[in-house]
# Entry
Amino acid sequence: MHGDSHWVCPSCRQGLARGDQDFVCAAESLRFSTHHDIPDFILPSRRPEIDEFLRIYQEVRRSEQWGSEAIEYYLRLPYEDLTGKHQWIWNIRRKTYECFLTDFRQHAGSRSLTVADLGAGSCWLSHRLAKEGHHVLAVDINTDIHDGLGVLSRFPSLKNFQPIRAEFNFLPLTFASCDVMIFNSSLHYSNKPIELITKTLPFLKDRGILYVLDSPMYNRPENGEIMISQKIESFRKNHGIELPPKHAGSYLTFEVLANVGDALELTVLKPNYGVQWHGRRFMSRIFSGREPAIFAVLKIRRRK
# Structure
């Protein structure tokens, strides 16, 4: 687990000095503050774009009524949505989680692993892995008290659980410091997902694993492009928001993943989502005019 002395500057990657309430990069004269026990490692030059994205993201999430005042809501995820507002989505995420967890436990065995939850959101996954005895780093840019890292103020205290605010492209971690890293329904927020995967791998220890959960994949790229266009139109129609293309996200294709497999060890794990899921996929194809997204679990390692 990263202690205070092990953080590095997300810009120059030099070690950070610990102040009273912040971390200091002497090389670039940068200061990273801590709010409510969450270190904030967002670079000053990146804040305007991060703020723009969060303004849109949080407005939509509030409109869709994500989150709850009750801590029990977060403790039950992904098995049950106590608000009843997004149970179908959590049913899918539960199946993904179970598929991931089976493989993760086989990899971990009896060891306590250092795990980075990238896109931790309300930290339900971080909390579950920490309860199993792993040292978990919960990473997100969103510190909202209902839908982001701010939820942690209501979680039961866990000593092996550290939240940080940071971008995936600018992680304040030392290389070879994590046993497992997880893009938790978050890789598709990057406009260059394959490039981000490659950039993330050096943070893994030897034979470490990078998992990708709940990010859309397609057989053909044109279906992914249609999905993004429909997303932009949905934001405009349902929320009155003009979603900039740079914030519309991305997708993966199996062809691109096959090419990645030449340089990396790639395993595609397929959760059993059940008959209802296949029925909804069939109806979605009819009404959306495109192939529905496929949500497999990707398991990635560097080749020996």
Summary: The longest helix spans residues 87-108. The two ends are 25 Å apart (CA to CA). The longest strand covers residues 204-213. The helical segments are 47-63, 71-76, 87-108, 124-131, 193-200, 221-239, 254-260, 275-288.
